[in-house]
């Protein structure tokens, strides 16, 4: 049947996958260079957390803006603006000469990178029926994990051969290559010349077709809708955990298990490889339940509850006696996060019409970044306090307790605001 329908929509997913890979490659470079930069610029954990917060603050503000902008100007142009902005900001890190300079470059990176997910989720809604959206989202969202897998191999090699400045320049320049393919291959289905009618009809088999003359929804109106808050709190409580995995795991393995970050890091590669499996598997699971005859809301909720439970064992990381025990527990939690992420984005596209999706994703993403601003301050304060006391591992133990409980709490709050994941009529 797939051959009859056509497969062009999966080429669109490939574009979204590579953009997300580049997005996470660019943002993770600083975590891998943290020990080197700490020595170069005499950073404390609090200094580093402040740089992370600069990224999160800019990311939060920009998500709100980008969501509305993309709904107004369209996915193709909106995505292009985003990747140009973040690629230039990533390169700018190489020219920072102070902690403040890194903060400025980091903030600029956050402003640009915020466009990725509103654009990608909107593109997925434009190109896929609901029954395939979770899988499509899981596939492109796995780019976050591939970026995180590539970085521990690529960045240490560049650092050793050419220095930390070149690590930022090389990774930042990749986005401009992707931009060429984006302009060649992407367009909305209604305007795409290579899309067959059978595939167009299939894409719109259970959703409203796009209307070029339809006005986007004012984002202030979205704050009066309960389902918006389900997505907001789901992101606010769980996004900060992923930021911790990205920005502090290399340092955790280095300080706790003496991992040499100047060499390709197998433990980090394994953790982020597991997240790729989680992202695609998480998207597949809810789709599997739907194909078995489950209602879409039930399929999403049960899947997300399973993923929330899978994060809980990370609390036992404090008892790990060697690096591989820690890798196993953290890999399970990180994979579960990405499975959760694939479904929470899809829940938003289930509940809201296409004309409002980018705005909703922007609002929820902003909430996640607000949580991502608060959590690094807690992490930095805890680690500096316990480092001063000569027991930094105790700080990580508290952080793992917070990580393990966040998803169950988020699931409960989401269920309160949207018990049936009801579709919004705007």
From TrEMBL:
The keyword Nucleus does not apply. InterPro entries: MFS, MFS_dom, MFS_Na/Anion_cotransporter, MFS_trans_sf. Its main location: membrane. It is a multi-pass membrane protein. The chain crosses the membrane at residues 51-70, 77-96, 166-186, 229-249, 269-290, 302-320, 360-383, 395-418. The keyword Transmembrane helix applies. Keywords: Membrane, Transmembrane, Transmembrane helix. Signal peptide: none annotated. Residues 12-422 form the Major facilitator superfamily (MFS) profile domain. Gene3D superfamilies: MFS general substrate transporter like domains. It comes from the Bacteria. It is found in: Membrane. This is MFS transporter. It comes from Arcicella rigui.
């Amino acid at each position: 049947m797939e051959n009859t329908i056509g497969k062009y929509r999966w080429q669109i997913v490939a574009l979204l996958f590579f953009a997300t890979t580049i997005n996470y490659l660019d943002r993770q470079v600083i975590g891998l260079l943290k020990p080197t930069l700490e020595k170069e610029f005499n950073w404390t954990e609090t200094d580093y957390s402040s740089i992370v917060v600069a990224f999160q603050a800019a990311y939060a503000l920009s998500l709100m803006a980008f969501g509305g902008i993309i709904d107004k100007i369209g996915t193709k142009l909106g995505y292009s603006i985003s990747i140009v902005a973040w690629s230039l900001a990533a390169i700018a890190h190489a020219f920072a000469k102070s902690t403040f300079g890194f903060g400025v470059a980091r903030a600029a990176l956050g402003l640009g990178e915020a466009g990725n997910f509103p654009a990608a989720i909107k593109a997925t809604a434009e190109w896929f029926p609901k029954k395939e959206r979770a899988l499509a989202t899981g596939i492109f969202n796995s780019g976050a994990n591939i970026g995180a897998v590539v970085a521990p191999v690529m960045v240490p090699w560049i650092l050793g051969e050419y220095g930390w400045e070149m690590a930022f320049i090389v990774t930042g320049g990749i986005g401009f290559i992707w931009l060429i393919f984006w302009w060649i291959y992407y367009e909305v289905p209604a305007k795409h010349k290579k899309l067959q009618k059978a595939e167009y009809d299939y894409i719109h088999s259970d959703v409203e077709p796009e209307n070029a003359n339809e006005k986007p929804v004012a984002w202030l109106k979205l704050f009066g809708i309960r389902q918006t808050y389900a997505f907001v709190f789901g992101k606010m409580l769980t996004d900060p955990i992923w930021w911790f995995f990205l920005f502090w795991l290399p340092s955790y393995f280095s300080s706790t298990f003496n991992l040499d970050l100047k060499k390709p890091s197998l433990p980090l590669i394994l953790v982020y490889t597991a997240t790729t499996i989680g992202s695609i598997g998480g998207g597949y699971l809810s789709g599997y339940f739907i194909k078995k005859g489950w209602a879409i809301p039930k399929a999403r909720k049960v899947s997300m509850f399973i993923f929330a439970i899978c994060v809980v064992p990370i609390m036992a990381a404090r008892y790990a006696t060697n690096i591989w025990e820690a890798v196993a527990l953290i890999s399970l939690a990180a994979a579960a996060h990405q499975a959760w992420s694939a479904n929470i984005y899809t829940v938003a596209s289930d509940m809201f019409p296409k004309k409002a999706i980018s705005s909703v994703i922007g609002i929820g993403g902003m909430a996640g970044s607000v949580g991502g601003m608060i959590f690094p301050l807690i992490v930095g304060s805890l680690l500096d306090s316990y480092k001063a006391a000569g027991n930094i591992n105790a700080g990580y133990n508290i952080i793992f307790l917070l990580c393990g409980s966040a998803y169950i709490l988020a699931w409960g709050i989401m269920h309160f605001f949207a018990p049936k994941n009801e579709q919004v009529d705007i």
